[in-house]
Write a structure and sequence with these properties.
With 296 residues, the protein is an all-alpha fold. Helix 2 runs antiparallel to helix 9, helix 2 crosses helix 10 and helix 5 packs across helix 8.
């Protein structure tokens, strides 16, 4: 970045970098939360709080004019279903059975998944380098879910938690594609706030599926993790992300997602958890794939 870079761009770079750091921390906060409560409960608390905060922010900034548009509401509902409800169900159930580092590395393949879905769903073109990126990303994911074991691959001994994280990442890719249409006549804050609020509401009818007692209600550790996820990992990060996307554009902003697994591995190192050779190899393949997929 040179001296001629506008101050707003420098601010966006800082905010997008902080988003990546907050989302990396979300894997560890999420792991702590699902060790104390059911994934449905964690999701409801997280997005109930985050959705309420963003709806209040939306009212303060823009009012609720977008809520009078029935087409917008339908699209926001579908976006919330994939991007909040399904994404987080698979994410938290998967995170119960895998590590934060594995989860962050698999999620890093999202640009490749999005590109692949856009190709077959929306007919968007993938150049040869993009196809190479898709292959490298999925090779990296395969390295992680098999723990680098060829025998596990040949006998289909795949880690269930990692596969659920992969499904959640696919749901996020669908959400991203849907948001392009849902946000066509509304601001990024409006589509994010409404999708999050509607997606959070869909967890309510699922609560009876978790019939065990709720000791987390009196747990300071749970509420600390949940508030981090809601305020920092959701509401604040989404607002900062929206600022960065508006200022730098979506393609340039997407590059900062690549920092999430980097920060996650640094946090693991600070906690004394040394990444495995399979994680290093998977990280190299996925990040190389993301570079190929997003490079112009």
């Amino acid at each position: 970045m040179n001296a001629e870079t506008p101050a707003s761009h420098r601010l966006s770079v800082v905010l997008l970098t902080l988003c990546a750091l907050l989302w990396a921390g979300s894997f560890y906060a999420g792991k702590a939360a699902v060790n104390l409560a059911a994934p449905i409960e964690v999701s409801l608390v997280r997005f109930g709080i985050a959705g309420s905060v963003l709806m209040l922010w939306l009212y303060y900034r823009e009012g609720f004019g977008a809520l009078r548009n029935a087409t917008f509401l339908r699209r926001a509902f579908v976006s919330g279903f994939f991007g909040v409800t399904l994404y987080n169900l698979f994410f938290y159930y998967g995170l119960r059975d895998t590590s934060p580092v594995n989860g962050s590395l698999i999620v890093a393949a999202n640009p490749a998944i999005t590109a692949l879905l856009s190709r077959f769903w929306k007919g968007e073109t993938i150049r040869p380098l993009g196809w190479l990126g898709v292959l490298l990303s999925f090779a990296g994911v395969l390295t992680i879910v098999t723990r680098g074991s060829l025998e596990a691959l040949l006998h289909l001994q795949l880690a269930v938690g990692d596969l659920m994280i992969l499904v959640s990442s696919t749901c996020w890719a669908i959400y991203s594609i849907l948001n392009r249409a849902a946000g066509a006549n509304a601001s990024s804050l409006a589509i994010t706030a409404v999708s999050m609020a509607l997606g959070a509401a869909l967890f309510l009818p699922l609560l009876p599926l978790e019939s065990h007692p709720a000791p987390w209600l009196d747990s300071l550790e749970f509420w600390g993790a949940a508030l981090y996820l809601a305020i920092f990992g959701s509401a604040l990060a989404f607002v900062w992300w929206g600022h960065g996307v508006r200022d730098l554009g979506a393609p340039r902003a997407a590059i900062f997602i690549n920092l999430v697994p980097v920060f996650a591995m640094l946090i693991a190192a600070l906690l004394g958890q040394t990444p495995t050779p399979a994680q290093w190899a998977g990280a190299a393949l996925i990040l190389s794939g993301v570079y190929c997929t997003t490079r112009r």
